[in-house]
Amino acid sequence: MPILPARIVRLAVVAGLFLSGVAPAPAVAQTYRHAGTEFEAVRRVVLPEDKSPAIAVTEFHHHGQIDRDGVNVLALTADRRPQPTRVLQLGPGDFCRVAFETDPRQREYFVFYGGKPPKPDDVPPWTRTDGLLLEARQYRQCNLNSFESVKQAFESSEPIGSDYVDAVRHAGNPFLLGNPPFLSRYSGTFELAAQGRYGFFTSSEDCSFLLIDGELVVAAPGRHGPERRALPGNRKEVELSAGRHTFEYYHAASGPSATMVAAWETNPGSGKPAPGPIPPAVFRADAVAHLPAQPAETRQEKLVPNFTYMIRGSVPLPDNPQHLVGVEFQNASAAALLTKSKLLWEFGDGQTSELPNPVHVYLRPGLYSVKLSIQRGVKRVDITHQLHIDEPNLERPKEVDDLDKYLPIVESYAPEKLDAASLRQLILAFLWKAEQLAEQLAEQIAEPKAGEEPPGNAQAAAETPEARAARSRGYLARAVAAGKAALLGESAAAGDAELFKLAQIVGPAARDQLGESLLAGQIWSAASRKIARPEYRAECQLRAADIALNDLLNPQGARPLLESAANVLGQAQTGALIARVKRVWGDYHAATGDGAQARQAYIKAERVLASPRPHVEQIAWQGAYSRSTEQFLIQGDYARAARELRAWQEEFPTEKIRGYLHLLFARYWAGRENHAAAVAQSEQLLAVNPASAYADQLLLLAAECEEKLGRRDRALATLHALVRDYPGSPLVAEAKEIIARIESPP
Questions:
Q1: 563-575: per-residue pLDDT in tens?
Q2: What is the pTM assigned to this prediction?
């Protein structure tokens, strides 16, 4: 019979946050000195009238008050008698789970925390053995075939979380969002009403080991998936007496998925196994009660703000392991605090809100210090919790949120207040939306084939191509503006590696997607000034120099950038960055008319690269670059054309001697209506290789661009040069016709 559970999904960081709004009782609020120390805060826990548990478990966020080892926490009865107290879990962030033993005569308890630890002699020892305790710890490499190795790894590893559970029946780590590897152990004492023979089963992913009274009874060693059916060979039988027996179950999950299941069969026969769950009653699970903690009260303030939060969903970005995470916050402060008051939320990522119950989008998972402040007149009170934000574990992973739900929120963010990693996520989200709109636009304007329905739904069809194109460009502009704010102005974004990643995204987006070369040059130049790491700074300077030379036609501005980059890189002779230095120097010499130096620089650049590809394969790649560029230019897809052109010249610098690369660059610039840059490509090729087979085509295109720039004399000079210097060209006749047209009176 199947013994696997359905997947159990639990957000431990959320479970204890929806707390009662009842204020702490004033009786205990008058003193915080107990067990020889002064505590900083207290939370009230009340047992329900219909329950009399031996152990109470409560959880809350401790606003930075509890030490890492959890020793400054103590539960007291209403008459201030310390109770045996255990901190089951600290973290992630300020999350805390506490268990304490109860007194049959008491229903009201107070969990004090913060300050210095109580005196050990004043804290009664833990005595109860009720319940089944699950502990999860960080994964440590071990031999999954050896129980002793797994046990040793567990005992020496860092804790993740712990709680009382009803049974060994989980799929995944219930204490964390996400699915990292982990180790776990269930431990407790179970009580048998009668002596008998018991058959035990385990089904796990990966290994598991079940022990009774310290003796290994059943094992599933190794790395494997769960056992989906109970077979006779999987059952291990043991004779047990009536009374109490210790129970342990060790487990290791070495990958992203996990299963932990223990089952039994009482007095099994010789037939087909029929295991069932081990009843929670044998562990006296009903002796443990999970109860809410009421809002905090501190030594300084009887009434402090209180809030809850719930992770609502996440949106993955393409080729990106980090999701955008949607979180709903709710103000749960006492009504007395909210009268004639003003609220301010600070979400720990530089963003704020004054809404009572805001929805916030975190641009990446992590720990965030969230502060809720309440201002009443001149008095301000606040509380800060460090929260762990991560994508939720979904029953069906494909059920993710839609980016369009998050965009209205993130569009209001102040980019300059985001750290660099979060800002990069914001930029990538805008770029992804721009790409989605561009793809929809391409579908919308494509002519449907015979028998096909027009693409797009009714809502999409209602948007005109012009409107969709404008929206796509708008999101591109948002992305670039966000990066510009960080690189050109004062910003929270810092760190050489992160700033360089920003520049790598925003610089090309400005240059090739928006077609704003001046802005792209400013971005790369600003990045080079903010970044200290030499190779990153040199690459930023090279990018800025390339733009100054080929886009802005400013070789004088490019030279100091080139010299600085070359000095930073020193005597290095290999690598793509060295090849780029030499290639851009080649562009500089070509732009300043020194063809011999340009040719030498291009040849050196290609030697530095030393492509491992055979010559035939290199020719094939060059052909692939040219064909794809031609197609993108025909389609008017200049962003993709630019990407192909730049990759082409980086991989094959000597193509800047042959000439076809110049011709396609000139067509690209003409399509972008940067006619001066198109003319410059012609001038560079004539300096480098006037005998190129493509020189006549470039001259004709340059003449057209000169005419569009209103420079008739230069257009005529260019056409006459074509006729004079390339008399055998098939374009001579066309050039003469254009000359006649230009020279004819209007």
A1: 999 998 877 666 8
A2: 0.87
